[in-house]
Amino acid sequence: MEQQLIDWLVAKLAADPRLDVPNGDDAAVLRPPAGRRTVFCTDMLCEGVHFPSAPDYDPRAVGHKAIAVNLSDLAAMASRPEAAVVSVSLPRSGGQSVGEALLEGMLAIATRFDVALVGGDTTSWDGPLAVNVALLGSVAAGRLWRRDGCRVGDVVLVTGAVGGSLAGRHLAVEPRVNEARLIADTVAVHGAIDISDGLALDLSRMMQASGCGAEVDLAAVPIHADAVTAAKLDPSGGTPLMRALGDGEDFELLISLAADDAERLLGAIATGRLAGWPGTPLTAIGRVVADRGLVAVSEDGRRTPLPPSGYQHAFT
Amino acid sequence: MEQQLIDWLVAKLAADPRLDVPNGDDAAVLRPPAGRRTVFCTDMLCEGVHFPSAPDYDPRAVGHKAIAVNLSDLAAMASRPEAAVVSVSLPRSGGQSVGEALLEGMLAIATRFDVALVGGDTTSWDGPLAVNVALLGSVAAGRLWRRDGCRVGDVVLVTGAVGGSLAGRHLAVEPRVNEARLIADTVAVHGAIDISDGLALDLSRMMQASGCGAEVDLAAVPIHADAVTAAKLDPSGGTPLMRALGDGEDFELLISLAADDAERLLGAIATGRLAGWPGTPLTAIGRVVADRGLVAVSEDGRRTPLPPSGYQHAFT
Q1: Chain B partners of A130 at a C-beta cutoff of 8 Å?
Q2: Residues B50 and B108 placed together within one structural domain of the fold
Q3: Residue A113 and residue A180: Cα distance in Å, rounded?
Q4: Are A156 and A213 in contact (CB under 8 A)?
Q5: Of A96, A114, A284, B29, which one has the fewest beta carbons inside 10 Å?
Q6: How far is A35 from chain B (nearest CA, A)?
């Protein structure tokens, strides 16, 4: 790391009991928690793609999002966050203050979710800001969520509300780590995925991995207020419901589990009996069926194919 | 990842016994090896900084270097490589072929050093190529090398030869992972660091962390042929020796250990008794002393302060 920025960061870091060697060596050394699997993921945020171009980005918000989207991946595996390493390519001019604000944003969310920042790398260049986080988590071997275990007859739940993220909250991602771990402690989940590219697309991915399909009750889909705003601002992007199904950048969880477990879980939340539940909405939006593909079920019972809409990454 | 590139990569990957969940879930799940510490590091390579700007870079060589520099950090901790996650920001036009060549370069070195590629993230943008690797390794708790344990009286060894890297081999980094693990199996090492920013600068960092200083025998420093070439091409950059001391990007190891252990180790290598040693030169270049700072000792015994020259990262 650029020495000045390292010094600034290391002065802010509390000693972490998971670390075996103090910060500042060639690599971080951690004691893996006994009896748990290691969970490992990475995400890079690029200026002008995942956040606005300078001067319109808030580096603190970018730092928050860079940690948050990785936490969302761990949430989809019902895992406990442990440690992160961070890489940033900073502008040559003003890089120190951008770097400090960015790391402040990271530190705030890392503290909230008990992530140790254990290492990193910084470059100054003439290119745009790019921020990479790699995150380690852990999970008890039998408690791990995967995306390929959904079973016919399962109910599909979604956390929070979806759609219109780019019109509002896409930097203020709130990863569902605590929700996932509470659910994993309460019921057996068969499949889970986080919604990064769009509800319909990510649901279709989970169904494809599991070898089945899903019916979605359109009236049940929790539409975020941002989706309503976005639909007003740009009607060409579809109705609020279409946006809820396809916009992406929601970082909510889709969870598939047996119908009686879903009922028990939703009942416990509704009656306040799930201790520690943070108040996040959890909504049943459909069910897993044997026929591949997605089907939309409208309020009057009409069934139509549901295209797996969402953000499709592709090269031109 | 951009779906097309993921599909391409996953088709190339062999199943890895360390993975608990097949590739393609939200995060990778690994079984941590019993009784070992987790070692974790990251490094980002940026176009125009760590490799030439388009069209002058070879994406395969960039992929190689991105894995190699992280392996060099693990080598400095005498650790065994385990798994990597990779992020790339690719040009919108031609990104698929750049991405494939890059990943081919990564796969080749990952296979050689038994690193499982377990996850990643790809973005297309209008910015320059940026490649991040985060690497996990493991090490037996008592076998770990650190940079802060050098003792007065230690001998300092360096692997390979140093200087002039930018004039030749800076993309073809050969990480000293196997050398480090063989040495760790043979003798007790007190301190180690890899040379990324310059022999003198990285040696001074190791001495500072250890609370001591070092004398460097100038005539003993193994000067790379590239340093001679570089000094001819650009005499303003100093003599070959000055380049060997300060150029950086060498990714050789500096190792500090008791004099009798150093003698035993060098003797075993010289006589071919260190089974598996890959033939890499290993040279005693000086010793650890109580007085802080670095001292250069010339062939005639003259002692002068040695400035900690090297690549100083800074913002303007």
Answers
A1: 44, 46, 89, 127, 130
A2: yes
A3: 13
A4: no
A5: A114
A6: 9
